[in-house]
Amino acid sequence: MNEFVRLTINDGVAVITIDNPPVNALGAGVPEGIAAAIDRAEQDRPVSSIVLNGAGRTFVAGADIKQLEDQAHGRGPGAPNLHGLLKQIEDCSKPVVMAIHGTALGGGLELAMAGHYRVAAPDAQAGQPEVNLGIIPGAEGTQRLPRLVGLAAALEMCVSGKPIRAPEALRLGLFDRIIDGDWLSGAVTFAREMAARGGPHPRTRGRNEKLGTTESNAELLAHGREQARKTRRNMLAPLAVIDALEAAVTLPFEEGCRREREIVETCLASGQAKALIHAFFAERAAARIPGISKDTRTYNIRRAAIIGSGTMGGGIAMAFANAGIAVLIKDADQAALDRGLATVRNNYETSVNKGRFSKETMDQRMALIHPQLTYDGFENVDLIIEAVFENLALKKQVFAEIDRIAKRECILATNTSTLDIDQIAAGTSRPQMVIGTHFFSPAHVMRLLEIVRGAATASEVIAAALALAKQLRKAGVVVGNCRGFVGNRMMLPYMREAQFLLEEGATPMQVDQALVDFGMAMGIFAVGDMGGLDLAWRVRQEYKYLEKPGVRVPLVLEKLFEMGRWGQKTGAGWHRYDEDRKPIPDSKVEALIEAVAKQAGIPGRTISDDEIIERCIYIMINEGARILDEGHALRAGDIDTVYLAGYGFPAYRGGPMWYAGAVGLKKIYEKIMDFHRQHGELWEPAPLLKRLAEEGNTFASLDASKEVLAVRS
Ligand code: 3H9
Fold it and tell me: Does the predicted TM-score (pTM) go above 0.90?
């Protein structure tokens, strides 16, 4: 039909195949190709029925997000209006069967719902993930989905954005049959059956039997809005999608579609959509490293080993087992190993009890984790990750040992969060095989994997670490070997500034609340209490050598440490905690802060929430600009991915560097200059920030110019 869509006739059944790699997005040319193929098949008299499917690994992953991005930024024609195509399919006189494998997402599911029937491979998934891009389904999905699955399920799918699996889709009425074995020939058989059964074939837009009653819908919509406000805090799209679903149950189909279109356009014009679309592409761009291509030779990780069964080691072992990779886990001490494995088992049991997966899945995962006290079997693994205590001498000793045992092509990785990879690599006979894999706690949950490139790390090893991140379903970001790498290096000034704010008159609860209202997953003091103030204190001691005479340092942390207030583990830190671990303001801490500030001669004043955000977030942005300038991050988008996947930064703000662009670099630079005058050298503006602000540029435009250079070179 055209380069994206093929039509073949299989014994009276027209098979239309969308072939637009990698994910068959509905980019320019695809809707036109489908329309032409449907038209041809309908005209072709011997054709009894039509099967539409996707080539390669998936059905259709939705509209082309690049087109949506252009539309959001007012460039180009944007995503096409699919109304005509969907109506053509639904009105087709021959039964149209959508054959789904892989994923039918966004516009892909909307296309599928316009078919008369949907059949699927057993592992297929379907979803409306548009809210995760700050928009709502814009190809009549909000109008057809409740007609197929009912309002309650449609609300759940559209607000969460989470896909559902084929058996659930079958149960809800979204799919008509699951096909074991060859799903495409099964779909062709199904199409023949439907043609033989004869029409009329069901048009989704005319199906009103699941649309509920006014009363039941009012309750569902009210509950949905309440849930959306709670679970998708501060986000516009989840509430907007509920408005569109409300239109489905209150307006005729055509009017509902018009309402949906208006809402999607409002969403696309929002800053949130721009930020979330940026986040989507930034995470994928992070896997593109100059000098590494699809042809770069790499190492497959089939078997791995971990040294250390503490919180990190255990979590990493779970991440591997969850991805189906067998893993040895070694500790020096039987009691520690037993404790580590008990925690792993306990975590899995909690998931089983919450219904996240079955006991059988848990047993399969546990069977992939092999605890041991020796290095037996380490000679056969493809990757060894050291996750012992954060101490350079100890890590060097471990690396010397594994260097002797591991096969030559085994990658030696360290989970250090602060130490110098090159020093660790120098003690081995294979520095080119040494890399940092910095997981975030809990490692089986947090999506970020900082991949730390040492001076000698080979490209093949970096490529292998990126592939591993993908295998573990994590966001892999390659970072340079600087102190704290990207995430923790930016976190340090953030934590410091938050503490200064206390000394100047804010309370820990006020700072935390302002940060949570801004959208952070947790306040910085709650984060400190969760990680342990003993740990924060130890990090502080390590970094003490960086402190310069005359430059301000936070004063309260040491006092809390000395008082044994180490955070949640001791029941109190910056906050107190109730039995449910809910933070409660603590007047003792407030009095301590006041006394310490008074003694240091720091005058108290009223601190506004705006100042809290500016001091905490702008200091991170300034450090981010230095990291970028030094080349310790390849792109500003990489820094955003680090903060979105690992530090609870609100996705709808796109990450700290994107947020800087949204506020305006000029405004941020001027504010930083103000703070520099007021608070001294810790606020020295980063030269890159100054330059971009003066040029009227953003970090995103800097990234874009680098991508252009990479393409040209
Ligand atoms: C929508 O449909 C709106 C509608 O309601 C209509 C409105 C009018 N477009 O993730 P991967 C690229 S909104 C363009 O690494 P995986 C991706 O950038 C859309 N490009 O693979 C990457 O490119 P590169 C709703 C897309 O196997 C490559 O494909 N749909 C699109 O881990 C591989 O991607 C969604 O939100 C796209 N739609 O996961 C689904 N999708 O190699 C978004 C992917 O150059 N997509 N790319 O970096 C996904 O969730 C995952 O990509 C998917 C595959 C699960 C499909």
Answer: yes
